[in-house]
Amino acid sequence: MKTCSILIVAAACASACGTERIATSGKAAGAGPPTVEVVRVIERLLDAAVSMPAELNAYQSVAIFPRVTGFVKTMRVDRGTHVRNGDLIALLDAPELAAQRAESQSKFQAAEAQLAAVRSKADGDVSTFDRLKAASATPGVVAGNDLVLAQKAVETDQGQVAAAQQIVEAARQALASVGDMESYLKVTAPFDGVITERNVHPGALVGPASGAGAATPMVRLVEIDRLRLVVPVPEAYTAGVTSGTVMSFSVAAYPGQSFSGKVARIAQAVDVSTRTMAVELDVTNTDGRLAPGAFCQVRWPVHRSGSSLLVPSGSVASTTGRSFVVRIRNGRTEWVDVKTGLASGPLVEVVGDLRAGDEIAVRGTDELRAGTDVHVTQTKNVKS
Prior knowledge:
Layout: H1 2-30, E1 35-40, E2 42-44, E3 48-58, E4 61-64, E5 70-75, E6 82-83, E7 88-93, H2 95-135, H3 144-183, E8 186-188, E9 193-198, E10 205-206, E11 219-222, E12 226-234, E13 246-251, E14 259-266, E15 276-284, E16 295-302, E17 308-312, E18 317-319, E19 322-329, E20 332-344, E21 347-352, E22 359-361, E23 375-378
Parallel strand pairs: 1-23
Antiparallel strand pairs: 1-22, 2-17, 3-12, 3-16, 4-11, 5-7, 5-10, 6-9, 7-8, 9-11, 12-15, 13-14, 13-16, 14-15, 17-21, 18-19, 19-20, 20-21
């Protein structure tokens, strides 16, 4: 009796397991393809901007050397001094220039005296010639040879006068040159700006860039009312750059604030070592808030020559060495390799074997294998 009961229980268990297996098999057989939410590929002009590093430079910057060798007598400026065009920066002392001036003055006066003597002789010879010529009108009064000699003397005097005049002019130029050199003892500002570097003090011996004291400049002057914002633009983003375009930028010294500059100069050539093109923006800095040498971040607008294909950024899946989107055609999945470009809000630019209007999975994933049959459900296209 006990054995019979065990057999009945075993038979019941086997029957239940068989029923469960049949039910499970039926459930699997009855399940359909997975449902995938899709979105359509968009084609339109790209409206995007990228952040690029840039550097602010002074519009003009010059290292000032004296034009003559001398000792610094006084310094009128120091680091941070604002100067105007023509303001005195330093006054030099060069005693040898006084001696050169006296020598040049003496030579000039001697040349003028020599010219006066030559002119006096020439006037006398001209008078003699005129009298002889008048007297020669009476036959036998003046010998013909005397008249010829008088005429030659006049011509010689004219040449001597011309030579003396040239000597006087040369002496005048030499005297003026010494005067110019004396004016160089006053070192002045060539434009409006700020002194950013001072390297000499009273008593120092200074000279031209090729002379004594030429290792360092006396001072360095920069113009800060107007700045140059130099942007090294990557080759891929150089298309469509035009002069006059206004762009915004930010600096670390003023977080949360935005400044602007206007495109003024374009290099029109790509640097082969960096594959970038230098673009300069003019920046007005009348309030002096921005400093030359500061690094900036520029919002650079990107323009394409034609329309771009855009998809939601989440639609692009990436695996080792591969980026793709999952396209659905005739209810079956395909993996389409793409290269991503710039982002425009929630959308991203893609390049690949896609067409506008193609249906792709909203969520790109390698779990959705290629060749899988799926049901699709439409969703609204993501707007940037």
